[in-house]
Amino acid sequence: MNVPTSYVVALSAILFTLGAIGVLIRRNAIIAFMSVELMLNAANLAFIAYARSLQQLSGHIFVFFIIAVAAAEVAVGLALIVTIFKTKNSIDVDQASSLKG
Amino acid sequence: MHFSEAAVEGWFALVPLIIAFPVAGLLVNLALGRRLGERFTGFAASAAVALAFGVAVLQALALQQHPEGARIVVADWIAMGALSVPWAIKVDTLSATMMLMVTGVSTLIHLYAAGYMHDDVRFQGDPGRYTRFFIFFNLFVAAMMILITGDSFLTLFVGWEGVGLCSYLLIGFWYEKGKDGIGNAVAGKKAFVANRIGDFGFLIAMFLTFGAFGSLTFDTVFEHAEAAGPQAGLVITLITLFLLLGAAGKSAQLPLFVWLPDAMAGPTPVSALIHAATMVTAGVYMITRTHVLFHLAPISSSVVAIVGAATAFFAATIAVGQYDIKKVLAYSTISQLGFMVAAVGMGAYVAGMFHLVTHAFFKALLFLGSGSVILGIEHGHHRATHGHGDAHGGHFDPQDMRNMGGMASRMKVTFAVYLMGALALAGIPPLAGFFSKDEILLAAQGGNLLVYALLTAAAFLTAFYMGRQVLLVFFGRARSQAAAQAVENPPLIVVPLVALAGLSMLGGALNLPGVHTLGTWLGHTLGEEHAPEFSLLVAGISTALALAAIVLAWSLYGRRPLVENQPDPLEARLGGLFVALHRKWWVDEFYDWLIVRRYVRLANVLAHQVDTIFWHNWFHDSVLAAGFRRGTRWLAEAFDMPVIDGASAALARLVQRAGGGLRRVQSGYVRNYAVYILAGVVLMLSFFLVRSLS
Amino acid sequence: MTPDLILFLGLAVLAIASAVAMLAGRNAVYSALFLVLNLVTVAILYLLLNAAFIAMVQITVYAGAIMVLFLFVIMLLGGQQAGSGPDLPWQRPVSVVLSVALVVLMAYALLAGGRGPLLADVALQEGFGSPQSIGRLLFRDYLIPFEAISGLLLAAMVGAIVLTRDEPKEKP
What we know:
The structure holds three protein chains of three kinds. By secondary structure, chain A is mostly helical. Chain A has three helices and no strands.
């Protein structure tokens, strides 16, 4: 594709920010988690873009690992959410505020 | 005898030992006396004084070769600006005479006391007090030595005060006994107060001396005084009059003699040593020492002579009316001191010193003899009542001559020596008293006829009352059970008596008319004195009067000896006059009315009004204590609580509030924490960006 | 306006739109599906960037497995609309502000660095992004991280099982 690298990276930045907004604003724990996935995804895109422009395959390797880690994280995270739901009967993140000082 | 120069100088240098030996004696007894027993204590004390006598002998021998004497500086004492008083000892013929007499008589009396006090402490019921007696006795000898060897007014005064202290301690030795349980202590206090008045005079004299002549050392003062000329006449007169006041206190002259009869409350050795032979002569010695000043103030000398003569006569009259054996001797002492003071007042210093020495011999002998008699009576009383106290229930006075009589056969040695002493005191030739008294009378006859008359009358009375005493005590029949059962005393008591009797007999040889041994000896210090020629007339008159007095006494008391409870025949003949004599001319009562009662009232007022009510109740309690309490309460409540506690409490509250505020950051919401993270990221990014751009 | 650019822009718009839709959606299932769309779009972009293997991995693992997992849990939990209860004040405005700041910063960083080379101008060797080349790299240079990742996955599995297990009943 014959586009400048920076355009792709800019897209990545925008997706990342959208993901950040999602984490901060949404109260649904699952939606927040999905926003985190979106952020990871945006980072992957940036990696691939630079790997292409710098001809380094190690970027691909990084993305590979990030995806693996994301998978593991999702598994555990969702298990946690389910466990919390069992006790609190709600997936509102604001309900989990027992660490309040 | 001739000795080497080095030896003589060495002997002079030994003179501080004359003070050191008695001090060592008292320290040894203080530390070990009680533990090592009575024998050791008595021996140690007597040995100390005997060693001091040895040193005195060495000084005398050294002075034979160097009659001008020596000045041994022992230590620095005061050196303040113009006043310089080192601790120096003046060895000259005058001080050597005193040293020999004091240490010699003291040794004999120490030996006597070792035996006498053994009985006395048991009679009074406190054997443990034996050691204390000898500690005080040695302290007295040490102080007397300081007095005699003093090189300046101040060092003499130190010894002066020291002997006064020891006199007080020893008079009140049995402090819990006596009239009403404090009689002895009261007598000691009286002695101290009377002495104090004399000391006040001495102090004023010292201040005047320093002010006028700029020094307190004898030699310096005498030089300046002689060089000063007639304009110093007034100040020298004042100085000498105040010195007379001091001598009147210490040597029991009018008007301060009242303490000496009461001082008989002390044990007999004390009376013998201190109140007959040594301390009371300190006043005479002091006047002799300062003769230069008295030469320059003829008015004072006349006053001294009149005071002495008047005292001699006055005291002799009182002695006639006394019943207590020791009181007679006490007033006799005052009278003889009057003789000595009159002598030095007339400028006859040698005569005065001569009489001082001989009087020491026979008066000590008489006192010790009376002590022997009293001991004998006490033992007899104990035997008569088999230790069960008084058979008649009344208070038995072993010193009352009316309870004695016929003692000559029972206490032979005591009688013999006592008779010697009495004859010597009466002035019967060839005993010592005759020669010394005669010289004084000679001087008086040549100088002051009033003094001569008073002294002659006193001499007559002296012979009379001594005759009366000897007849009442030793002759006739025993007037009480106790006298009937009296026995002679052990040798430790009797031997010193014999020694003193010997000295009384032979003491006249010190200054026989024509030979004038003592006169020449003292002349090295006192300057050449013109001794009056021996006058057969004066001697004859005095001897005749003495014999007449003795005959008179015999006619009253000897021809028909008194029996028990018979009143004194003199009482019948003299009537009211005898009462006055017996009551001492009411001098004590007069003083009590004039001074003592008013003083006691003032003291009570001061104690009650000033000390208790004002000082304690108001000032201490209301002002000081209450103020302190109020102050501490303010500090605790108004200061400590709000300020200090408040500060720490405020600090705690501050921490609490800060913590509470910061706590709100922990909201517990994950989304808040995420915002913080994002904010941090933004900050970091901007930081890096700005850095890379600049 | 090369065709490449138009293609890229179209894909970019699709990705952003699906992301926004995911965020704003009220229904959790719809949000998950929109995320899937986003992931597929990004995979296409990977293909265009010569990352063939990764693109496949993205589709199979990310969009296929992870999102399915998400959907399972959404169905399990009923996807209620969480939104009841008091809202945190300041949260929305502050988040927006911060996010805008973030975008601005990143944009500035990008623009300051210049546009960068056109991707086509960079010559590529044969087989860039092919499984062989990746495999070669993975099992040789990055072997240890590869094994570590296996361990990580194992731990995640164990953790998930433990967390969702029922507590054993206490024996009376």
